[in-house]
Task: inverse folding
């Protein structure tokens, strides 16, 4: 069991390793001792999201729910991050809204990913919505927003005609 867990949590994002992880995950899910675990889903969602394999990330998110787990902040953040990675801005915003509606609180990582990617996509209007949410979810929103702006300055967008 320990070897399987190590394979599933390994950070190597080689596509073949990812596919092997999925096969191992499917195998252990059928074992009597298996209990659903947020971290396994989160790790796999992160790896597939990095490879822009949205269908796999969405499938894992759905399976997490089917397993009886309530999506946590990490699961939502991985799904949002995957959507943003492939410029599916509206899906990312829908997921962000679903996250909040479910009672799941966006953390600093979630908010950073949202703000940084929305600004980079030229969606300052949506980034402003997320920035406004910081006051509701963070103890020091002004300090947080200053740190995000310092670490991730807006990229210069060239308007080529």
Result:
């Amino acid at each position: 069991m320990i070897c399987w867990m190590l394979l599933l949590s390994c950070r190597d994002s080689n596509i073949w390793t990812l596919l092997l992880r999925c096969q191992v995950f499917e195998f252990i899910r059928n074992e009597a001792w298996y209990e659903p675990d947020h971290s396994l889903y989160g790790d796999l969602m992160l790896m597939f999201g990095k490879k822009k394999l949205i269908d796999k990330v969405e499938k894992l998110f759905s399976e997490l729910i089917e397993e009886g787990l309530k999506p946590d902040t990490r699961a939502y953040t991985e799904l949002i991050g995957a959507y943003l990675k492939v410029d599916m801005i509206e899906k990312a915003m829908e997921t962000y809204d679903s996250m909040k509606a479910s009672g799941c609180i966006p953390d600093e990582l979630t908010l950073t990913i949202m703000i940084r990617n929305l600004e980079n996509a030229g969606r300052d209007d949506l980034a402003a919505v997320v920035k406004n949410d910081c006051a509701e979810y963070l103890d020091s929103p002004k300090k947080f927003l200053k740190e995000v702006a310092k670490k991730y300055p807006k990229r210069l967008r060239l308007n080529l005609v």
User: Anything to note?
Assistant: Residues 1-8, 157-161 have pLDDT under 50 and may be disordered. The chain has one domain: 39-151. Residues 15-29 form the longest helix (15 residues). The two ends are 58 Å apart (CA to CA).
